[in-house]
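Reposting from the mailing list since nobody answered there.

I have sequence plus structure tokens for a pair of proteins and want to know whether others read the tokens the same way I do. The first protein:
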Amino acid sequence: MAIKAKQKKASANLEPLPKKLTGIKGFDDISYGGLPAGRPTLVCGDAGCGKTLFSVEFIVRGAIQFNEPGVFVAFEEKSDELAANVASLGFDLKELIRKRKMRVDYVHIERSEIAETGDYDLDGLFIRLEHAIDSIGAKRVVLDTIESLFAGLQNESILRAELRRLFQWLKDKGVTAVITAEKGNGALTRQGMEEYVSDCVILLDHRITNQVSTRRIRIVKYRGSIHGTNEYPFLIDEDGISILPVTSLKLEAKVSGEKVSSGIPSLDAMLEGKGFYKGSSVLVSGTAGTGKTSISSCFADAVCKKNKRCLFFAFEESPQQIMRNMLSIGIDLDQHVKKGLLRFHASRPTLYGLEMHLVFIYKMIHEFKPDAIVLDPITNLITVGSDSEVKSILTRLIDFLQGLQITVMFTALGLNNNSNEQTDETVSSLVDSWILIRDIELNGERNKGLYIMKSRGIKHSTQVRELIISHKGIYLENVYLGSHGILTGSAREAHKLQIQTESVLSDHAQSRKNKQIARKAKDLEARISLLNTEFESIRDDLNNAGDEEKLKKQVEKENLDKMERMRGNDYPFLGSIKGKINNK
């Protein structure tokens, strides 16, 4: 434990190797800070690989971005020629020279005048170079190319001695230098010795594979510093050099709980009602004509309607063709293009190699800073690379986009065969959500069925929904099951009509039954009314008979009382009659 503590303390006291940022996009990332400060760096490669451009950009970026003047010593191109050659890249060398931020010194060396003697040295170059450095206070120096200095020498001892002296002189001067050299046979350089005396060696490569060119860069060695050891593709365009670092293998990208709509409400409903996670990757695969581009266009439209930016890479159709076709389903993408929210980039996959496509995509993302991107379709990239290479490219792209929290939607063309199924499985393992569209052939019709095969972290529907594309847009029909399974298209409509017919007939039959019940009810009510009438009549008759008997008794009693009052006791038999009447 004590030894480890001492080692840790010692390492903490060590100062890292000082470096100079180059300003070249991507190179400072793979070199972990740029070129070694105050030391020479060798840049070698075949003709046309970009050595001169790398060294020019090193000087220009230093002067503009870091306020470090630079001296460019050219042995093959004159100052005016060099300025004209890099003007198309946006580098104004004449303006930098006028502002004393840069000096271009052309040194012409005639090979026939170089004598191979023991007295050969570079003192003349040192004097001239020192004057140029001191005249503008240069911090950076470029020698392009070193073969011109030693082209006529064959004596290795003299060559090695002068190389060491040149490199040591640059170190003593304290300038950060770039020396270019041509690649030799079986060695990094033509003499095969420069790489041994250089502190940093960078190899540029320009290769042709399947008639597609790709430029690559590799840091062969870097004394005193860790660095990226892989081959990295780089792009030369109007902005100079752009290098694509290989994505780190560490899965440390941040995640978001925010949702992004697919642009199709019924599809969002299958994804907990809100869509995909922000920063996730989505694959939409299916055969030709199943609506992949339409779905991706809906996604782009939904992003732009939220006043966010979307970048659309098309590998099959031109932007005008896509915008025209989407108008037929009610999606106006042109309005977003005019507002600057949507940008198209359309090209054939064979325009670049796979690595160059990735470099260009990275470059476009850094420039446009989109919230979402669309690649339609990624299967076209297989024409310039194998399945494994496409998977590697997509892995790096997905990792890069996750780190920036950019949502990406890929489309992939299916061919309804086993090999394509395996390809889909390979690509789908990389993405967070996979939407599969398949043809459903029934009753002589070809319809589309949409499945959500997976969606990481989202409780999604497992049902098969029919995808409908009409002039009103895109929507998903609810699952419709018949006696023989899922029904789509005209079969679904016919089944709906059949159900409607059966419903009408059922309603009609129910109406007839209701009428019969109503008639029965009326008959019963009539009969009940008649019976009530008869009952009332009988009750009245019975009540009348009783009243008559009571009235008769009352009259008889009144009459007897009257006769009794009239005759008194003359007729005693009347009392017995009255008693009989009362007893009744």
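The second protein, same order (residues first, tokens after):
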Amino acid sequence: METTTGKETLGFQAEVRQLLDLMIHSLYSNKEIFLRELISNASDACDKLRFEALTAKDLFENDPELKLHISFDRQARTITVADNGIGMSRDEVITNIGTIAKSGTREFFQALSGDQAKDAHLIGQFGVGFYSSFIAADRVTLVTRRAGLGAEHGVRWESTGSGEYTIEPVNKAGRGTEVTLHLREGEDELLSGMRLRAIIRKYSDHIVLPIVMKKEEWDKDKSEYKLTDEDETVNQASALWARPKSEITQEQYDEFYKHVAHDFETPLAHAHAKVEGNKEYTQLLYLPAHAPFDLWDREHRRGIKLYVRRVFIMDDAEQLMPNYLRFVRGVIDSNDLPLNVSREILQESKDIEAIRAGSVRRVLGMIEDLAANDKDKFATFWKEFGRAFKEGVGEDHANRERIAKLLRFASTHTDTEAQDVALADYVGRMKIGQGKIYYVSADTFAAAKNSPHLEVFRKKGIEVLLLAERVDEWVASHLHEFDGKPLQSVAKGELDLGKLEDAAEKKEQEKESGEFKELTDKIKQALGDGVKDVRVTLRLTDSPACLVADQHDLGANLERLLKAAGQKVPVSKPIMEINTRHPLLQRLKYEADQQRFNDWSHVLFDQALLSEGGQLEDPAGFVKRLNQLMLVLDQKN
């Protein structure tokens, strides 16, 4: 343990200074929020001590009754939030308060928009609610000692919220942390027992630990309340999830969510249930209204707190919720798990498998309810979490059918980027005789919407799903059918419209394939190893050519994604399909100059590649050929 013999002045990390600046300039619209944040931190500190003490009883130091204490001093104009939780060492104070030492820091600050209302929720979910103290205080003093260390290892930290803070050793008899706020001018209304009690009951009534304050009695002579030496518990101090649903108001559910999720917005929905039978557990699960900034961070925090018989065990219990539902927040309290359960035990526990399966069903039920009964909230859910939720198609085989019903995509039905088309909607609009669900995938929505592969589908009025997110390739590779209808990429294999195919058009294609066989063979020879085959198509109406993958090869977009991710990709060549009715192909058929023929063939290939969002292997060669061909055309004119 590193100690210091005197006071030191240290500088905040640049990100902390930025955060403090946001706080001091009234980031929160509701200043009283600071008390909820400090109480929440104190509660977490007590939970951590209780968990560590399961294997090290001496950490309680003859003080096993965990609680929080709130006090105020009108003369000194201070409010103090104290706990007898785990406390911090000097190094932990510097790490936890002087710096933001966690992954996603850069993403967090990039997510800040400058809009106070939008930014407010990010502060809490990033886990730095301590800094909200500076909303109401112009100086904050923290005194702490980690459980298990001697009294001489106490630490005193102080800052005015500018670029620096001081830190020094002090003697602290009891473990835990005391945070004292020296209030700014104009904040004296907080120096009231009645006011503080009202804030605690509003925001922190659900805290499991007792929050105590000194009792007050009315002094008739002075016509004011006078503090006594007697403590009283201000909150209910009982686990909210353990109480009957009939006794819990919507406001209490929402405030509990804000506590467990460190969020400042109300959730979209919640599910509260007590499961009885072979496995007994209680679940209180929430769907947030917005995505956390670190949703795509591999080291992101998960949102499920695990309790065993109302004793906190761990935050971030990733075994309780699959990755595609990583945005879910809440509490699961089991009666069957051992109190000393570890992450390793959780990974192998049959009980956990049962709890996880039940919780997933509950979450899917919440989402289904939104989809059926609250379109606006479901639209918000999909906008915030749709990309993550799509991962479930490949991850959760047991619930794939339920997940598929909840998926939403853009399509040619509206031709907008909004993902509001359910697969059931698509099937309901399928033409008589249509046997497949068609889709096209690309790197961007614009590339998908304007893909040449859609030309014949647009001509015949056949709807096609427009897949433009990376995860969509994952979905298509795992979701082979829906409602008995197979999913078919319009850019793979030969065009197969089934009963929608026009017999006359098919006959004409066969005729043209024979008439233009010499041309297709010649183009294939010009392109050499660049293509698997060249053939006549009915797929195109306006474009001269397109590239398609063979039925059992990787699609071009998936191949690009895998390469970008550093994956080894099996070598496969595209098939080039030509529109023989296009003027360029009509002209190419009679091109006598072999070099120009070769150049035209390569230009057509490269154009087809670009039109589907691909990248040219030799951009300079493409430009050179195109310039030469334009010069020849200019000379002829």
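Reply #1 (J.P.):
I read it the same way you do. The mean pLDDT is 85.
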